[in-house]
Amino acid sequence: MRFAKRKRLTLADGEDSQLSAQFINPFIHELRLTALQKVKIAVMTVTLFPVRLLFAAFMMLLAWPFAFVATVGCSEDAVEPLSWWRWLVDLALKAIMRAMWFSGGFHWVRVKGRPALPSEAPILTLAPHSSYFDAIPVTRTMASIVMKAESRNVPVWGTLIKFIRPVFVSRSDQDSRRKTVEEIKRRAFSAGEWPQMMVFPEGTCTNRSCLIAFKPGAFIPGVPVQPVVLRYPNEMDTISWTWQGPGAFKILWLTLCQLHNSIEIEYLPTYTPSEEEKRDPALFASNVRCIMAKALQLPTTDYSFEDCRLAMAKGPLCLPSHTCLLEFSRLVRRLGLNGRVTDQFLHEESSRARKLCGHKLSLEAFAEYVNLPITEALQDIFALFEEHDQVDVREYVIALSVVCRPVRYLETIQLAFRMFEAEEDGAIVEDELAVILKTALGVADLTVCDVFRAIDTGDKGKITFEDFCTFLEGCPNFIELYHCVPDQTSHTFSEPSVSITNHTHNKKHD
């Protein structure tokens, strides 16, 4: 696979950007420390860090009795009038939480714009979502949020969360998504009776390099929303807590070791949806995202929470940071192909591809093969695999198997072997192994000569799937051990493959 060269990255206002060649995988955060920074952190670890950690813990414990008293006997389905004592508790908790953040180095919280009243905008949409430190605007306002139901049982923290009356989502309830949307709608139409809701529509944490696709939940009610953008203008990014990178405690440790941590919260003007947007929550979400991206001067991309599963899948064939399979996954989802991919479907597709015996297809033939019209998205998929204006559909089937069942890498390799193996002995040669692994990893360059020789112990010049499995049992990290994939130290895409949405704020479909 390779990166499509004809795509350019565009910012939310439609202007071309030279950032295209440096687009960063949004689910990866690599923190590289200089020698001086390491020395500073070492000093702070034995001086400032324990003091801050203890004070923050003390503030949490101090807040608990206030929240406990305020929530005793409270119903989760109704809101009581704001009594004077609850108003005092609310004020006390805001002060305690502010002291906790201050102790963590967030000495000043810069706020721009005017927060809308609940009657003006029942829902606040916050982005980019990059860390648990994004709770700062929540504790400043005590607005309600959407949280997993398990959080209510966490000692101390669960009581504090219950005070802000969140919408709890139960993972064990298969109907939870519908119930969550219904509850958001109920509160949104309460005419300011319920507290405002703060929603992070990205649904997962990123490294703030772009805005990924917004989930439609906050936009389904069709009520006015107020976009809120977050910035952390610090010299060193110890804030980002992504799917691949420093863990939760390391982020906390490094952040508390900084003398000062900056955060900016900007409240943008309230966005009132048009009638068309009320009927189409996806369009509503897209247009709000464009406004927020423009304010942040960031690009937007159609990567979503679902792509995390692909990007972070573990195993011998875990994807490198510069894989273009994320782009392929986005295009597959855009064409609606992922919904029909099953084990049976992949088996049938592999059989069809094998019958072509490596015969390559033009764009027109490829469109006929997948039974889809020639659209921009299909052309982009074609460009990922094309060589001399033709594609080998076996590579397409391998990539489809990876993105639709990322944790089942061995089944993907077995499927690939069946498409490439010779009929007489079920074996493949070195060049075919290179194609299989290159496609399964989504990279343009791959070196397999040493790996092939290690697998081909009998020096037959060919290997079977059983040979590969035997080798894999003894060397599960062969990709790293044999330096198969060139090192991409910048963790950026080598070419501007990522199709960045070219929305403009005109409330129209693309």
Describe this structure in words.
- The chain contains 20 helices and nine strands.
- The model is unreliable at 5-23 and 488-510 (pLDDT under 50).
- The chain has helices spanning 35-46, 48-71, 84-103, 136-141, 157-163, 176-188, 248-256, 275-279, 281-296, 306-311, 325-334, 343-355, 363-370, 376-385, 393-404, 409-420, 430-441, 449-455, 465-474, 478-481; strands spanning 109-112, 123-127, 144-148, 167-169, 197-199, 225-231, 263-267, 427-428, 463-464.
- The strands form two sheets. The chain has a seven-stranded mixed sheet with strand order 1-7-6-2-5-3-4, covered by helices on one side. A two-stranded antiparallel ribbon has the order 8-9.
- It is of the alpha/beta class and 510 residues long.
- Helix 16 (409-420) runs antiparallel to helix 17 (430-441).
